[in-house]
Task: structure prediction
Amino acid sequence: MKVPRWETATEKEVWEFVAWHLAKNGIQTLLVGGAVVAIYSEGAYQSGDLDLIQLTYADNVIPQVMESIGFKKSVGRHYAHPKSRIFVEFCAGPAGIGDDIKIKPDSRTVSGQTLFLYSPTDCIRDRLASYIHFKARECLDQAVLVAEKFPFNQKKVKEWCAQEGASQAYDDLMRKLKNQR
Result:
């Protein structure tokens, strides 16, 4: 696995490097949050961090692996690399979007290791969750960035918004998506 050029590395490059090394050491993780938007939008959005949920219990191994690739533990569950603008946070699991914890992640094979991240549909739902529950308007824009580039399960997103008591969020997404085209 090639070491990224830390000063200019994208979320995708840092994620692949970190997740690859974790996977190589038996630690499967799932990338969630804004970094997934950064990857799917091909850098149109930049999050500045990676939110990883452990799929494999290995709390005692993570610090060793992270240190071996140049990341130092900073505050709480955060790890920072001295040359990178992107930090890594290990979030509590399980992965969930609103009340839905039956997440089926997408996977990518990178240099022989399987890495996991939210699917485009789940990335859109995740961003809409922040839009709904935290009134974060920028998260609606992030959902639109992903929806513009990838086919997604509109029925699943619509039904999920309704279950969250926020059917309007789906309507807002579709209206903004229509206006972008």
Summary: The CA atoms of residues 121 and 154 lie 8 Å apart. DSSP finds seven helices and seven strands in the chain. The chain has two domains: 6-118, 121-180. Helices lie at 11-24, 34-40, 62-68, 120-134, 137-149, 154-163, 167-180.
